[in-house]
Amino acid sequence: MKKNRRSFLTLIILFIVFTVAIISYSLYIYQNGSPNLIRLLVGVAYAFVVSILLPVTISNYRNYYYRKKRHEEVKRLYKIDSTFNNEAFFADRIKKEVKRSSKSGVIISFMIFSDSEKYQYYQVEKIRSFYGMVIQYFETIMINPKYRKDLTCGFEQNTFYLYYKYEEKEEINHFISKIDNDMYTLFAKINVPINMHPSFGVYQIVDKKMDVRDMIEHSKLALRTSVNSFQVAVFFSEDLLDAQINNDALEQEIRRGIEKREFEVYYQGKFDLATNKFVGAEALIRWNHPTRGLFNPGAFIGECEKSGLIHVLDFYVFDQVCKDLGDWKNRGRRMIPISTNFSSSDFYRPDFVESVLTTIEANKIAPNFLEIELTESSTANNYFYVMSVLKRLKESHVRILMDDFGTGFSSFGNLKKYPINAIKIDKSFIDDITVDVKSREIVDTIVHLSRSLGLTSVAEGVQTEKQVEILREIKCNQIQGFYYCKPMPKKDFEIFLSTNTFEEKEDIL
Fold this sequence. Notes:
Elements: H1 2-31, H2 37-78, H3 86-100, E1 104-114, H4 124-143, E2 151-156, E3 159-166, H5 170-187, E4 196-204, H6 212-229, E5 233-235, H7 238-259, E6 263-272, E7 277-289, E8 293-295, H8 301-307, H9 310-330, E9 338-341, H10 344-347, H11 352-362, E10 370-375, H12 383-395, E11 399-405, H13 412-417, E12 422-425, H14 427-431, H15 437-452, E13 456-460, H16 465-473, E14 478-480, E15 488-489, H17 490-499, H18 501-508
Parallel strand pairs: 4-5, 7-9, 9-10, 10-11, 11-12, 12-13, 13-14
Antiparallel strand pairs: 1-3, 1-4, 2-3, 6-7, 6-14, 6-15, 7-8
């Protein structure tokens, strides 16, 4: 209202000034011997036209100048090829604004998050194109009269930084909701079959004397929490800071544990129901902490995924498996294929296949003794890339197992499309197989289909004799679970393979 009133008064004043000036000039001519009424009327008309066009021209020029200035500023601020100093530039730019503004303010860290880790590897050009659209979107908002005095933007790598001034707290939620809705509109314009979600981390400025860089870090911490908890927006609180301190401490402990080789590989055998022999095993990770004892994966895998250490840990396990197989080979011990798990972030790394094959070759192991377990979610998109990786592995005689089949993105079509060797039926179906008819029918269907496609079926999490009887009845190929073999360290597993009574008893029968 104030802006409209100011513009209206400006027009009135300009109109009066120019009208008075032209009329005075015309009267002067009239009084000094040029009694031409037409000239007088022309002068009045001229004054009227000038009083309208001049302020419009000035306003348009100012708007053009302002747009051009902001456009250049945005281009410089968002220049993707020069992102190193953009966060620092943003911090320096808003430092004075934070202190002198009479309004309250928030720092918002914003990014486009995908619940699929392959987002960072899939169709890079389209992802860049999408970020270009987001940049143009914020450029438009910065020019918008509604926001241009209350909004400052910055960009670095895949994160946008917003400083937004507001009068009522509700304006924050409305502003975030607007961006959230507008982003989904942009998603529809780019043909990338990946689930993408806007995520926001918000820090409300309480103490304007606080270092702006600390404010930004608090908003980034809230953003990480938003991404990890699948929430649209998270507001910073001291509790988040305490949790971050604990996570940082855990990350450092994990790094130290990897360096000191505190992580140990355990093996759990896979029992073949047709031959009554252990025909394989899965490698599982345990953390033998020096002061707190043995940790299962649930205590540290999540932090490894957040911190990016999962790649290091996955190849730590794979390398140890190859070394153990090499040791059994050199000592003439019984050797069976060992399967290892890789995260989807590993699978979509450009050097994944080379790293796997190099590790196998370095330990002089026949590739057919190695199996790689991949979840369906890691192969859900980018069909051609997935096929190229799986074909290279299979051509190198590395076996591929589809893990946790029956959950998440499971599709029977994938059994036909991908060059896999076996499927592992998820434990959730096996748990209920003795009491739930539907679970039994699902397992029966998966086993029958895998058999018709020439694939090996492996039931996970088998714990009771009754479950074994049912799986034997429906002709499941292999069983993995506590009933036949619990996870155990290398030395214990080596002894177990030569002394277990299951093979002996089954052989007698």
